[in-house]
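Question: Send over one sample?
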Amino acid sequence: MNIFKSLSRTQKEAVGLLQIGTFLEYFDLMLYVHLAVLLNELFFPKTDPHTAALLGAFAFCSTYVLRPFGALLFGYVGDHIGRKTTVILTTMMMSISCIVMASLPTYAQIGILSAWLVTGCRIIQGLSSMGEIIGAEVYMTELTKPPAQYPAVACIAIASQVGTAFALGVAALVTHFGLNWRMAFWMGGAIAVIGSVARTRLREAPEFLEKRQQIREKLRTKHQEESGIISNAFRTQKLINKDKMDRKTFWAYLAATPSWPLSFYLTYMYFNKILKVDYGYSAEDIIFHNFLLSLISVSILIFLAIISYRIYPLKILKIKGKMSLVVMLLLPFIIINATSHIHIFLLQTLLILSAMSLVPAYPIFLKRIPILKRFTTASFIYACSRALTYIITSFSLVYLTEALGYYGLWLIMIPVNIGFIWGVNYFEKLEKMERREKLTPALAA
């Protein structure tokens, strides 16, 4: 079955170009995340295990903490200038930060300044990735129609996971063969430049252009164009502001989004300490272990993208939400009774299978946001949910696990899971109401 047979040549080309760019972007972004077990020792001072855990959490969160500001910045560019401009700009930013990181001196060379510089580079990478993936998903949502829309947008998430897997593969090679880690970042910077150049072939999303044209027409009909550029810009913004997102819809959207960062952190970050302390894993072993997990994650996303062409995506999300709740309730017991690294690997695989993400239903969520606020709103929700979830999760688990053991995981996991299930159910109700409204005039006729 060709799930993209209904797409035009332009649409297929856009899917390919956006996938390439997202792959490159996430390769660069995740390269440090998965080399952190090695690089944190080079860029941060050596301390006791507790402080080291906090420093590791700080390095991890630095990528996400300023994302809300990036969401506002790139959201404004995306909604006022265009989606295409944003995805090109963010890819170039990623390239520059990657090249700078490849050149940074270590803690042994310049002291604590190295920690601040590498954190600054991570913040820039986090900001650029913020505009990139949302821009690509919004662009594809506005360029395509269901049912091909669901796998087309899911391809962006697949590309991000492939980029993550590739970063892990490179990290495994670096640690296994003792290669120079700087070469990986030089390569990442170079290929990001290629990605930004390739994206210049994209055309602006037609739905966005159509809405901007409608705004211009409204201004013309009121004879306001002669009022000057500043006045026109002000009136344009007033017309945009009239389109508002329903408040309950906003909160339902926000409730559903923290689920994926929690699933990601638990799968790829939380178990690193357990594998290192309880099973004697080295940095090299952890990287290879996570590389195998990333391949499983890519395979599952591809499967979800394919079945979303035939199975309504919100039904898929509801099943995953219920699965995840069961897994999270059992998680502390499974960790306590695990007796080998194989058990941990199987548990992480189970977390991937039940991971709560909006893929492949993301277009359903995006279309509930007004078009000329879509980029800003979606990216701001995305950024805030990830920043808060990663900060709360990575820091609080250090203390919760010490105080309550593995049962402390429930204090974070269960509320997030319930929020995800509520958000998905709410959007399902909106979809049902919309279908009934469309059917009513037809039945009356």
Summary: The longest helix spans residues 9-43. The chain is about 80% helix and 0% strand. The radius of gyration is 22 Å. The domain at 9-444 is CATH 1.20.1250.20 (Growth Hormone; Chain: A;).
